[in-house]
Amino acid sequence: MSDILCIALNPTVDVSCEAEQVRHTFKVRTHNQRHDPGGGGINVARVVAELGGSAEVIYLSGGATGALLDDCMEKTGLPRHNIVTEAPTRVSYMVREMLTELEYRFVPEGLEINPASVEKVVERVAAFEGDYVVASGSLPQGLPDDTYAKIAESMRDAGTRFVLDTSGAALQSALDAGGLFLIKPSIGELQKLVGRRLDEDDAQNAAMNIVRGGGARYVAVSMGAEGAFLASETGVLRLHARRVNVQSAVGAGDSFVGAMVHSLAAGRDVEAAFRLGMAAGAAAVMTPGTQLCRRKDVEALFDGR
């Protein structure tokens, strides 16, 4: 049995490649193409496995692109539960322009999903006997805003800790229901949640209000190159970002969540877990395309004070 169950309701086949220059109208010749299974919950599970942890995945997939996602998932070796849908799995596309070293990321919203598909997810979550359930990623079209809140409710009596990394109305609905263990919004997502721009002091106050209001026990807010902070009942822990050679920002947030939950499942305290999450987020931007963090980079960057 795995310690961590990861949920991907809106997964993708992540296609990444490189081009000398991206131009409109003309054909853009690409090279170094690769396919990876993607979407928040899948990425989190991949990171947990990379760091030596035990995770399994529930994900939705359908159509010919769903078959491609299943093939990509089989190659990861992760224990998985695939729920077949009528809607084909979306395909995300990332192009790195070598001339400027800029990234162009195309992420479709995906087609509408039958809400009945989530009932099977809820059943699987309710039967899970591990320590942590992580739901990461956006909700596909067709699913109500309270989907994550209902999943959290299904496991509440079991005492399993629920970690949520999403945004917008889906995050607000889950916070309204309360009792989450950890959420990880970016500073931009936190601003959308409160409906206004925030400086860092305002952001910390907003995160503490979530904790005090019972929405989540811990709120980890990522701020890109400015670092991150963790709000809890004991106050705020602020860490600066590690300076690394940036290749791609893809997967940094998922690497952060995966490393932090892996650390918690291994019995480390929340501060050490937060520091490992920071190291993993920094390590992820050191890899090109849709690759995630590498264990050796995470270990080299980890400050476990």
From TrEMBL:
Keyword Cell cycle: no
Pfam families in the cross-refs: PfkB
Domain Carbohydrate kinase PfkB: 13-294
GO CC term, one of those recorded: cytosol
Superkingdom as given in the UniProt entry: Bacteria
GO molecular function, one term: ATP binding
Keywords: ATP-binding, Kinase, Nucleotide-binding, Transferase
NCBIfam families documented for this protein: 1-PFK
Family stated for the protein in its record: Belongs to the carbohydrate kinase PfkB family.
PANTHER family in the record: 1-PHOSPHOFRUCTOKINASE-RELATED (PTHR46566), ATP-DEPENDENT 6-PHOSPHOFRUCTOKINASE ISOZYME 2 (PTHR46566:SF2)
Protein name: Phosphofructokinase
Organism name: Hoeflea prorocentri
